[in-house]
Amino acid sequence: MEVRLRRWTREEYERLVALGVLGEDERVQLVEGEIVEMSPQSAVHMTTIRLVEEALRRAFGAGFDVRVQGPLALAPDSEPEPDVAVVQGSVRDYRDRHPTGRDTVLVVEVADTTLWFDRERKGGVYATARVPEYWIVNLESGGLEVYREPEGRGYRQRLTYTGEDTVVPLFSPEARIRVADLLP
Q1: What's the pLDDT score for residue 28?
Q2: In a domain, 66, yes or no
Q3: What is the mean pLDDT of residues 29-45?
Q4: Distance from the CA of 151 to the CA of which of 20, 106, 110, 133 falls in 20 to 30 A?
Q5: Contact, 144 vs 135, CB < 8 A?
Q6: H helix or E strand, kind and range, residue 14
Q7: What's the number of CA atoms in the CB half-sphere (13 Å) around residue 144?
Q8: Is residue 32 domain-resident?
Q9: Domain of 67?
Q10: pLDDT digits 0-9 by tens, 138-164
């Protein structure tokens, strides 16, 4: 006998939240039809998220919204909540809807115990949605992985930076971000 999992759509997932089946305080997200529980956040994980947020707010400025752990409507079966995302427009532009892949210019995940999931599963979702740039702050190595040029379920370009390096976001080419400023 074959065991099959029940896949969820983004519409069904949002209905579960609206009905209170999934509480607003539950740490879950929809990834490729699966409702995935998010890991509890350590102090170092949250500190890193805040450092990334501050650096990206300085780098992007007007015309972009830096969102922390907010949903992205990326596919009919995926509504991930990345640690940090930069979307075009202002906060009020998303009052009635979540940003899509077309709105999103950069997604950042902070990874320690979730490194494989962030690289493979979430990276695949972001690439499929054509998010042009995806960063992973790798707490294990103390570095930054930068993925660019989405193609299918992956990215053609993968760059690795250390704390000594500087990274330039694609949609803010005048900005220079020291990788050390992203690390706790």
Answers
A1: 85
A2: yes
A3: 86
A4: 110
A5: yes
A6: helix 10-18
A7: 26
A8: no
A9: 39-182
A10: 999 999 999 999 999 999 999 999 999
Token pair of 173 as six digits: 């080419």
Q: What total number of domains does the chain contain?
A: 1
| Residues 181, 51 contacting (CB under 8 angstroms) | yes
Evaluate whether residue 1 is within a structural domain: no
Going by C-alpha positions, the residue among 136, 131, 99, 101 that lies closest to residue 116 is 136
Over its C-alpha atoms, the chain yields an Rg (Å, rounded) of 16
Q: What residues does 161 pair with on adjacent strands? A: 144
Helix H or strand E encompassing 159: strand 154-161
Please give the residue that has the higher pLDDT: either 149 or 24.
149
pLDDT tens digits, 62-110: 999 999 999 999 999 999 999 999 999 999 999 999 999 999 999 999 9
Let me know: does 29 contact 36? Beta carbons within 8 Å: yes
Report if residue 98 sits inside a domain. Answer: yes
User: Can you tell me whether residue 83 is helix, strand or coil?
Assistant: coil
